[in-house]
């Protein structure tokens, strides 16, 4: 599903780095990252590494599947909110607002993706 | 250009099937076309505008027009998920006002029940979607995405599972009078809370049914509608809007209905307190609550208290909703609830709802739809309709 535009994100994930988009024209960061800024439409965008820290904005544990999992929105310290999974934690003990840090885990297709665990 | 009273809904038909293993989707489209035209008292040759959404079999409207044997001078296959059919009514009204067509037909059909579809399966709108690579690996299905809206609403406003359950309870009170409803039994708040959790905090009974079926509408100009034998239902106000993740500034507490509703009320020149009946897309209980707030029936965050204690039940509640039982109890053809929302609003305005749930002298109704995923990218549309 990756393509010429978003390939650097997935290459970086393989090296344990979380990249987000930043626009050099309006200085806004954005997610998911793209070549043309979703705020000002400038093509002067760049990839920047996020620190990988944030807080849970919302989440939900899918129960009626063979292996329950938690989908989540995490708001990074940089200000953007990204869709992700919560991993390596007791789902009964997480709450909205909890601090989390990024870890890289293989997604269903085997490629490492940024996921989050309690900080 | 205001669309106020520029067009009327002259025909409405809901397919009675809830499971159609022996029919094709195209065939269901043809059956609902015939149903809506018969309801209006028009024939196929009168149709000169056709609308379907992106899920219709084939490429846009091309395959359906050929299959149905329609020759039209206006075509529109706008796709905004389950809200598409409300958008189609607005676009049909605009086309009629612009002289592009006189009789517009809108059809929906689908067989997700026969095809084994479920809200716990990942929804994939194609690998080329620009968001797909960033999101599909995380397992976004329909139910867990809507569940995140509920989690956030509970966190910010103290909304409870019990309050959400009241929405299902009200729908079930209405469904008991609908012989076609998939779930006609009245349920209690406790039964909703005791049903298994599918995706926190949503229980099975917070979720709509999966059904086959379909529906169709005929929209025409007022001069033609007045010559037909059916009560005239005017399109009074329309609004459509799309909301996404805003480049990472995600806010799950409100939907695009906040914008579509405002536009529709402004065009109609009425306010929420004037509305006597509402059809609200109920993919999940939380979907209803967020739309009611966004439409201004109560303040943002007050939806839980607004829907509690039977407030949505016809006859006793303050705001009767989804008197056919809605998606929660009646049907959800094609996984797209917008069409049936318009149809029940038309029934109410004609005085043709079941007598046990008919709103007395119903002159002003609102139908609202959502489509896609409320938690990521979705389209909302609002229609305000009046009995002429």
Keywords:
heterodimer; A: 119 residues; OB fold (Dihydrolipoamide Acetyltransferase, E2P); three-stranded antiparallel beta sheet; 8 strands; 43% strand; globular; B: alpha/beta; Peroxisomal Thiolase, Chain A, domain 1; two-stranded antiparallel ribbon
For the biggest β-sheet of chain B, the strand order reads 3-2-4-7-1-8-11-10-9
Helix content of chain B: 25-40%
Arithmetic mean pLDDT of chain A? 96
Number of discrete domains of chain B: 1
Strand-pairing-aware structural class of chain A: mainly beta
In DSSP terms, counting alpha (H) and pi (I) runs of 4 or more, how many helices of chain A?
1
Architecture (CATH level 2) name of chain B: 3-Layer(aba) Sandwich
Strand content of chain A: 35-45%
Distance between the termini of chain A: 30 Å
Question: Largest chain-chain contact?
Answer: A-B, 45 and 40 residues
* Spatial ordering of strands, largest sheet of chain A: 6-5-4-7-8
Report the major sheet of chain B. Answer: 9 strands, mixed
- If classified by CATH, what would the architecture of chain A be? Beta Barrel
* Average pLDDT level of chain B: 97
Order of helices and strands of chain B: EHEHEHEHHHHEEEHEHEHHHHEE
List the helices and strands and how they pair.
The complex is a heterodimer of chains A (119) and B (388).
Chain A: H1 7-14, E1 19-23, E2 29-30, E3 45-49, E4 53-62, E5 69-76, E6 81-86, E7 99-106, E8 112-118
Antiparallel strand pairs in A: 1-2, 1-3, 4-5, 4-7, 5-6, 7-8
Chain B: E1 8-14, H1 25-40, E2 49-51, H2 62-68, E3 74-76, H3 84-97, E4 103-110, H4 132-135, H5 142-157, H6 161-175, H7 189-194, E5 197-199, E6 202-203, E7 213-220, H8 222-227, E8 233-243, H9 257-268, E9 277-280, H10 285-295, H11 303-307, H12 326-330, H13 338-350, E10 364-372, E11 378-387
Parallel strand pairs in B: 2-3, 2-4, 9-10
Antiparallel strand pairs in B: 1-7, 1-8, 4-7, 5-6, 8-11, 10-11
Helix pairs in contact in B: 6-10, 9-10
